[in-house]
Design a protein that fits this description.
The two termini are about 35 Å apart. Strand 4 and strand 5 form a beta hairpin. The protein is built from eleven helices and seven strands. The protein has about 375 residues and is an alpha+beta fold.
Length: about 375
């Protein structure tokens, strides 16, 4: 998640820089117009605008899978235009005091940052080495029509600076990846802990049922036809054992108990589901509200497990506060358009929205888009 944020920021910034380069270098373009054929300048402007726009587009969630191809294309555009300059050069020389007579050299190094962020640090070093070698040759021929030792020193200094920056970017990426990995491990550990707690709770419940109900029935068993009261006791014991006839629940549930019951309901759908629920205040909630929330969470998870795709992952996050409860059921699956769900599909409308709206202060809504996953937001505020 954090890695993608850095990649998105880098892609957006580099794309903007490429698109602004012709404007920022307008003075250099005019002053050195005669160094190359006009078609090269026109091609360079169009190519940089296209490459920059593609990078900006890949900074969106929907097109993130094209980030690496966009970075590779931007690099290919920069180095390709520099090589084409030799084909387009007219033989005229730039003024000796001109710093960047070939204007695209001002933005070319930034694409190496994109390579470091989207691909790998070593790849960015290799790309930067090749790019600065070509830039040395281009600037040498622009100034003197031959390779210049002075330009090689300039290329080495510039390359060293960009190399230092690439090392900093690579270190930042390593730290960010470590943070993401630690986050995944924490979520996996929390899910495993919740699964163990749920299994232990269920085991304790079954032990209590066997001790208080089943053994009590077995103690009354005698040879011959059982009496009616024994049949009633056996029927009740089976119902309690299967969770059908559990003892009546209190009308009010405290926050820790509500937290545990929701966590148990989530883990019941699978140990792989990440759970991050926090109790920020020791509040109390109507038992009916907790039952409805558990049903809505179950409906959201069931829909995700059925429709999000085999590679999708699910998570349930939320807080239990004194003034209310806020939960979200999220996945990174194939997504859908909620407004296009047929009216006869009652999972969202009846099982989520209407079910949550049935309790005062409750509401739920669904957000999703193709290839962007889905999120069910559940909120209950104390009336």
């Amino acid at each position: 998640m954090n890695v993608w944020r850095l990649q998105r920021a880098a892609a957006f910034c580099i794309g903007v820089v490429l698109m602004l380069t012709p404007l920022l270098a307008f003075g250099s373009i005019v002053a050195n117009w005669e160094l190359a054929e006009p078609w090269w300048t026109v091609l360079a402007v169009i190519a940089l605008e296209a490459a920059g726009l593609w990078l900006v587009v890949t900074a969106t969630e929907r097109h993130r899978r094209y980030l690496r191809p966009a970075v590779a294309s931007a690099y290919a555009v920069e180095i390709g235009l520099l090589l084409l300059w030799f084909v387009a050069r007219t033989g005229r020389l730039a003024d000796a005091e001109a710093i960047s007579p070939v204007w695209i050299t001002t933005s070319a190094p930034v694409v190496c940052i994109g390579v470091a962020v989207a691909v790998h640090y070593r790849a960015s070093i290799a790309c930067a080495t090749a790019l600065f070698a070509v830039m040395w040759a281009v600037l040498s021929f622009a100034h003197a029509g031959r390779l210049l030792l002075a330009e090689s020193f300039r290329a080495l200094v510039s390359g060293a600076l960009i190399g230092l920056f690439l090392a900093i970017v690579a270190a930042a990426m390593r730290v960010t990846r470590q943070v993401d990995d630690d986050r995944e491990r924490v979520l996996a550990g929390a899910a495993a802990g919740a699964a163990r707690a749920a299994r232990e709770t269920e085991r304790t419940r079954v032990d209590a049922v066997v001790r208080d109900e089943v053994i009590a029935v077995l103690r009354t068993v005698r040879s011959g036809r059982p009496a009616g009261v024994q049949r009633d006791q056996a029927r009740r014991a089976l119902g309690v054992l299967h969770g059908v006839d559990r003892p009546e629940r209190p009308e009010v549930v405290d926050a820790p108990t509500a937290h545990l019951r929701v966590r148990e309901a989530v883990v019941a759908h699978g140990d792989h589901i990440a759970v991050a629920l926090d109790v920020v205040d020791d509040g109390h909630y109507p038992a009916e509200v907790i039952e409805v929330i558990i049903d809505v969470v179950g409906e959201g998870l069931g829909n995700s497990l059925r429709h999000a795709g085999p590679e999708a992952s699910q998570a349930v996050v939320g807080v239990f506060a004194a003034d209310g409860i806020r939960l979200r059921v999220v996945d990174d699956g194939v997504g859908f358009v909620p407004d296009r769900v047929p009216a006869d599909r009652m999972g969202i409308e009846i099982g989520i929205r209407a079910r949550m709206a049935s309790v005062p202060g409750g509401e739920a809504w669904v957000q999703s888009a193709p290839r962007e996953g889905a999120m069910v937001s559940i909120r209950w505020e104390r009336p």
